[in-house]
Amino acid sequence: MCKEVIAVAKSDERFLMRVVDMYYQQEMLQDEIAKKLNVSRTTVSRALSKAKKEGYIKIIIDFPAENMIELEKEIEKKFHLKEVIAVKADDINNRDIFVAREAAYYIARMIKNDMTIGMAWGYTMKKIVDAFDMYKVGNQVKAKNLEVVPLLGTMTPETADNHDLRLSYASLLSSKLAEMINAVSYHFAAPMYVKDIATKKMLLEEPQIKNVMKKAKNCHAGIFGIGALVQDSSIAILEKDMILKLSEKNGVGEILGRVFDEYGNTVESEWNDKIIGLTLEQAKNIPIRVGVAFGEEKVKAIRTAISTGIVNVLITDSVTAESILYEK
């Protein structure tokens, strides 16, 4: 009896070694191993698990010395985020390009079949769409039946003198992104900001605008920039005097043109009442809320956005990430 048990054990040992060799050394798929050894895929999977427990497999993780994994994990844990991507900031002058590239890669990885993706506006959003084009990121997306929808209206020409800003409209960016990922795009046929509330109410009753708003409210993922209330921000170019007024009302940052305070609540104002697009409260109902931002001047705005649940995925650079984590 004893000899039989030993024989079975040795046979099992040989089988484990064969499976481990095929999987790790020969880089065969589990289905291929199962077919070759005339066993089920489940048996192969169990064999790999057992081999790991028995000590046949020792996994050594050898990341590059300067990686941001621990920093990302700390921020995820502290602020209860789905994911943080902190791009190594080797060159501060070009970090906008590197952050935008990683954001593009994240979006491509995140996209699944039948998804509706919401796009915000601003310089950072434009950089992300440019990165999709520059690095051909759209080629990675294999998902089908996709939609891209702008989350707010388009700026009126008279308020958008800056050339780059005029290329960062949500509708324009949505259309460009949709083309690169083979998705259907929707045009938000309304200005971002109107002069009176009566005009806003009238526009929101238009069937096309109402349909886009409905899609925006029900999208699966939203991509936002996070702005600081400073004079060179996207929102300041629209209404320069408004920045000071909203700062005096305890505004600390901006998403979707909506200014929020340190508690993540919308700062009520005449400006806010006249924006056409999702409110912060509506944006918070989007399952995946990706905030892409960096820069020392934005640290307070970013920290507020992630600590109050306005965004639940953060993409930034390592310098900004460290400031978010360690500054009081």
**Portion in strands:** 5-15%
The helix count comes to 16
Describe the main β-sheet briefly.
Answer: 7 strands, parallel
Supply the number of structural domains.
Answer: 2
What key attributes describe this structure?
disordered N terminus, two-stranded antiparallel ribbon, 7-stranded parallel β-sheet, alpha/beta, Rossmann fold, 328 residues, 16 helices, 2 domains, Arc Repressor Mutant, subunit A, 9 strands
What is the strand and helix layout of this fold?
Elements: H1 2-25, H2 30-37, H3 41-54, H4 69-79, E1 83-87, H5 95-110, E2 116-119, H6 123-134, E3 147-150, H7 163-166, H8 170-180, E4 184-185, H9 197-204, H10 207-217, E5 221-225, H11 234-238, H12 240-248, E6 253-255, E7 258-260, H13 270-273, H14 280-283, E8 288-292, H15 299-307, E9 313-317, H16 318-326
Parallel strand pairs: 1-9, 2-3, 2-5, 3-4, 5-8, 8-9
Antiparallel strand pairs: 6-7
Helix pairs in contact: 1-3, 2-3, 4-16, 5-6, 6-8, 15-16
